[in-house]
Design goal:
Transposase_1, alpha+beta, RNaseH_sf, Transposase-MT_Hybrid, Arc Repressor Mutant, subunit A, nucleic acid binding, 247 residues
């Protein structure tokens, strides 16, 4: 725009096209407009054009980004948020660029991966856990440091869905979705673990074919000294009896 104003100024002074272009090269260097551009603007000024702005152009009318197509894409994503751009484009007979523009620009959505979590809790369960933990901490000083607890966990062979397979279209302000590891297979083993406030203190995989009951924990007192606090510390442990499958 600045060079156009200078071209008009030189035209008013009676300069030629060559003189005007040489002056622009001295001032702007490699960024100066070409001789052809200077000639075109001289011709416009001779024809009576006074402004240096481009005249408004209608341009190519939109053929795909229409309210109807936007609504159709929105309905498809509402039915299945895991659809790919190619699947939507093939179903609606539209180009990939048009579908991408509708989803990102008009619908303001992005495709993000789900975040793995052990399991989901309701708001009531979260509130109950927080209140119970607060009561224990208030009643007993250094309460967490006095606890040694144990747990059993079946360890399955998983075939989890990949993060790319879990991608969904979501609004920009929508939090990432969550997914649980629920796909389990026959191959499994039992893990017994003990831990305190500082972390894991002992763990052991139970051999296949072993029957797990209360007596199964007695040998842990000898193999893990810290676990003596659980077995001999007046802490009764009720463990369901189960037999691990043989491999």
């Amino acid at each position: 725009m600045e060079q156009r104003v200078n071209i008009k100024f030189c035209f008013k002074l009676g300069k030629t096209v060559m003189e005007t272009h040489d002056m622009l090269v001295k001032v702007y260097g490699v960024e100066a407009v070409s001789k052809k551009c200077v000639f075109e603007w001289f011709k416009r000024f001779r024809d009576g054009k006074k402004v240096v702005k481009d005249e408004p152009r209608s341009g190519r009318p939109p053929t795909s980004t229409t309210p109807d197509n936007i609504e159709r894409v929105q309905r498809m994503l509402a039915d299945d948020r895991r659809l790919s751009l190619r699947m939507i484009a093939e179903d609606l007979k539209m180009s990939l660029d048009s579908v991408s523009n509708i989803i990102h620009e008009n619908l303001q959505k992005r495709k993000i991966c789900a975040r793995f979590v052990p399991h989901k809790l309701s708001d009531e369960q979260k509130q109950h856990r927080m209140e119970t933990s607060g009561d224990f901490i208030d009643r007993i000083p250094q309460f967490l440091e006095t606890i040694v607890t144990g747990d059993e966990l079946w360890c399955y062979q998983y075939d989890p869905e990949t993060k790319r397979q879990s991608m969904e279209w979501c609004s920009l302000s929508f939090p990432p979705p969550k997914k649980c590891r629920l796909t389990k297979f026959r191959i499994k083993t039992l893990l017994i673990a003990f831990f305190d406030s500082k972390g894991l203190i002992h763990h052991e995989f139970v051999p296949a074919g072993t029957t797990v009951k209360v007596e199964s924990y007695e040998h842990l007192a000898g193999s893990a000294p810290v676990c003596t606090r659980v077995v001999n510390g007046n802490c009764s442990m009720t463990t369901p009896v189960c037999t691990l499958p043989s491999t």
